[in-house]
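Box 3.1 A note on notation
Throughout this textbook, protein chains are presented in two layers. The first layer is the amino acid sequence; the second is a token string describing backbone geometry. Keep the layers aligned when reading.
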Amino acid sequence: MVQRALDAGCRPFRALVDGSHIPAVADRFIAGGGEAFVGGDAVRRMVAGLGVLHSVIALFHRPPRPSASELVSRCTRLVIVEGVDNPANIGSIIRNAAALGWDGVLLDHTSADPLSRRALRVAMGTAFSLPHARTTTLVDELRAMTDRDLYSLTPDPLATDIREIAPVGRRAVLIGSERAGLSETALAVTTPVRIPMADGVDSLNAAAAAAIACYALG
């Protein structure tokens, strides 16, 4: 993940590395202007506060991100997230979107930060290469997307079966929180679609649903 951050042009700040087995990426980190400190297992466990020790843990300066309108204008296939506050889910959604060839992720202000430690670990660093933006006015952004088809995931049995959708051109898919789903205002300005499931199962994990939707609508 540190290598992917460097590959993406993120500016290094400080790193803590295993003093007995210094990883090769430490030289690259320092060459990029960062500082690297070494320590044994006990020191690294105390400083990092993590249960699992890694050969390198690094801090980077947060890279600039595009505005919501800038991201929307340059993305043909866009994943939009509303109210997903679990960093692991955000990391998985980003990893799925990147793996399946989508162009970017737009998040509302209540969703977890894609550049948080947990989200980055789950995303395996793909958040560095897949652009994202945040907005406090998600529904307004949706209403302005007149250049694409907007699909929202819902378990509503009256929604269109996702297998019947054959999108062409620009598109976006909306993923909501597992507790409450998408807001009524977001559903009102999009086409609700459902992933068919076996009897007795009414929903999927948000990240799993995103993976299916990115594949089916890709």
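The longest strand covers residues 12-18. The longest helix spans residues 87-99.
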